[in-house]
């Protein structure tokens, strides 16, 4: 499903209206010019020639070759489409930037409404700055918004500006290119990452991979060397790119890893995410191409499970307050009290060109002090991706299936269920990927291997029954029932998929068995 704002059709005006519109535009132009000249800036970021320069640029057709300099490779999705920016829009955004920058009060970590307001001002300014930088390369016009935008970025999202590599988030964006996989890990799960990468190469994935960590306390020398020896893998300390005051070792590193990555289009995956198909297929999903973001749904657990659900609703309503009655992802289960958790962040696909402000806000939601509030009302990072996109109204897409289970088929009391990792199918109901690995994620004598043979999926969120008292979790369903029925469906892996699952298991034992 694709979630984006709808365009509004406009009827063709009559000739009289056209004449009146021209006259009105001329008057607005004069008023806007007076307004711009009357602004008082301490460093004169808008001079008397800016408006004329801007109007002339808006009349132009773009760069001489028809392509902005940033679109330097063969993938057209790495560039936002050009759009017209009005003078009034420029004036409004600069005024809002000045207002929020002059406010010295810090946003309280529970004030998600205030955070959402500030983040939307940054997003609007970022969009204009992007358009000017890419399609209208004029220094005078660019400087009219740059100073205030970067001042707000330093307040809200300081990591790129304070880092050693890029001068701003848009500079980092313009210096990104290509597609790749990003995985975060420390020493504890380095072997898990090695298993995942080895299996990716076995299924013929050729995407370059970046392993992100934060400091020597996160990833030790031996583990660094081990991962660096894997083919087409680059191991990166995020502090070599971002100005991080302190290093974390958990979920919070994940969106920062995307920000630090050199790739323009990123598949962010957990170290224990295992694929049945090359992850390259994710980039070809039409709804991802359209929106630039692909998220996956979590399993459907009763609203209130683990005390979660209502607090997440409240956070969503606060951070996306202006749009709370018209959410982009209107089909979500959470607002209908059908589940306690909505998004599974084991795999997130992002196009930075289309989603950079959402990436930055996701990073902030996973930073102290905001993460303390977020994590106490939801499970780790996983809902922050959705919250950021809804807050900024940046289009995104969500996979069609709810999280299922993959593993061993169990017959109990006349019922069938599949017990194992969190499972996701593609749009043709073929196994795509699952989360959780195969067994113990640290070397042990008893690995507790999961026999990956069957899968179970559910899509409607109705008539769903999970067993969650012990791990692995189990999803009840009906074996070989027709797809599309209003209950969970259980299927078996094909011979080729079973062979791949055996390879996963054999490698797991080889790496982890003591």
Automatic annotation (TrEMBL):
Membrane topology: Single-pass type II membrane protein
GO CC list: Golgi apparatus; membrane
Major subcellular site: membrane
Keyword Transmembrane helix: yes
Species whose genome carries this gene: Batrachochytrium dendrobatidis (strain JEL423)
Keywords per UniProt: Glycoprotein, Glycosyltransferase, Membrane, Signal-anchor, Transferase, Transmembrane, Transmembrane helix
A molecular function (GO) term: alpha-1,3-mannosyltransferase activity
Name this polypeptide is given: Mannosyltransferase
Location of the protein in the cell: Membrane
This protein's record includes keyword 4Fe-4S: no
Record family assignment: Belongs to the MNN1/MNT family.
GO biological process, one term: protein O-linked glycosylation
